[in-house]
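Technical annex, item 7. During the second reporting period the consortium partners agreed on a shared format for inverse folding records so that results from different sites could be compared directly. Each record opens with the tokenized structure and is followed by the designed sequence. A conforming record, contributed by the partner at site C, is shown below for reference.
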């Protein structure tokens, strides 16, 4: 069973996303920001990371760069609902870092499943 690390500063969203991944057959571990996520990644290792872009402490782009430095082949999904600029701007930046997939918040379980199926292919 694949192990996913969910990094998002919104506790309610993190919990909902964790349930979505468990429903999809994953073991889910959560972190509230990039710094906590990197610490967990360094000690536990994961098959997949999904991270928000806009977060306090350590934002998603920096988190993605550090994760890829530790594990260049790691599968990463970037997600964003936007901030000072639209979600597309943040997600396009993540795409330039060669993340495996992007999701614009809010997204459905079906959309998540479609992304997960593409990653397995």
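Designed sequence (site C submission):
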């Amino acid at each position: 069973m694949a192990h996913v690390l969910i990094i998002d500063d919104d506790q309610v969203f993190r919990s909902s996303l964790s349930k979505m991944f468990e429903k999809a057959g994953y073991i889910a571990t959560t972190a509230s920001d990039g710094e906590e996520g990197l610490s967990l990644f360094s000690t536990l290792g994961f098959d997949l990371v999904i991270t928000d872009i806009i977060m306090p402490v350590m934002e998603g782009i920096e988190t993605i760069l550090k994760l890829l430095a530790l594990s260049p082949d790691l599968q990463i999904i970037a997600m964003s609902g936007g901030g000072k600029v639209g979600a597309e701007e943040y997600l396009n930046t993540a795409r330039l870092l060669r993340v495996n997939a992007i999701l614009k918040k809010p997204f459905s379980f079906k959309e998540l499943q479609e992304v997960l199926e593409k990653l397995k292919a």
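The two ends are 16 Å apart (CA to CA). Residues 3-120 form a domain with the Rossmann fold fold (CATH 3.40.50.2300). All partners now use this format for quarterly exchanges.
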